[in-house]
């Protein structure tokens, strides 16, 4: 059984490369194959969740992260991923701007949250005595 586990280990490296290159579908397929061998691996569940979130399948990603947290409650990185994704999903659902956003974006109904604007330019000295 050394052969299959070597292939599975190689698949992990390939999946990471694919994900880094933006090939999220291929990376997800590789992590799914790894989970067929060991469905209780919290790292693979986490990695598959990240790939699914990158593809826009946020609900599946959250379910995978919840399972990973149950399997490895001491893994702070996985718990943090679950907390960030859940917070983001809740904010999208409720139309809530992130903390520190411009007050106009925090009003009810402000559903699209653009990035914060750049700081204002310093005022120039008035020309001709007007100001």
N- to C-terminal separation?
81 Å
The shape is globular
Major sheet details: none
Strand content: under 5%
Work out the number of β strands: 0
> Segments where pLDDT lies below 50 for 5+ residues?
1-6, 122-131
Which structural class should the secondary elements be placed in?
Answer: mainly alpha
Order of secondary-structure elements: HHHHH
Number of continuous helical runs = 5
Report the mean per-residue pLDDT as an integer: 77
Write down the Rg: 22 Å
Q: Helicity range of the residues?
A: 55-70%
What would your notes on this structure say?
This protein is mainly α and 131 residues long. It is 60% helix and 0% strand. It contains five helices and no strands. Helix 1 packs antiparallel against helix 2 (24-37). The longest helix has 19 residues, at 2-20. The termini are far apart. Residues 1-6 and 122-131 have low confidence and may be disordered.
Key words describing this protein structure:
60% helix; single chain; disordered N terminus; mainly alpha; disordered C terminus; globular; 131 residues
Write the layout of secondary structure elements.
Blueprint: H1 2-20, H2 24-37, H3 42-54, H4 58-71, H5 76-94
Helix pairs in contact: 1-2, 2-3, 3-4, 4-5
């Amino acid at each position: 059984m050394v052969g299959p586990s070597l292939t599975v280990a190689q698949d992990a490296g390939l999946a990471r490369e694919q994900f880094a290159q933006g090939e999220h579908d291929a990376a997800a397929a590789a992590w799914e194959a790894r989970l067929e061998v060991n469905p209780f691996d919290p790292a693979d569940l986490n990695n598959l969740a990240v790939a699914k979130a990158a593809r826009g399948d946020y609900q599946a990603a959250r379910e995978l992260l919840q399972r990973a947290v149950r399997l490895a409650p001491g893994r702070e990185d996985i718990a943090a991923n679950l907390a960030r994704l859940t917070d983001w999903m809740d904010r999208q659902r409720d139309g809530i701007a992130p903390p520190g956003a411009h007050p106009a974006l925090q009003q009810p109904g402000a559903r699209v949250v653009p990035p914060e604007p750049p700081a204002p330019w310093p005022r120039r000295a008035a020309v001709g005595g007007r100001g």
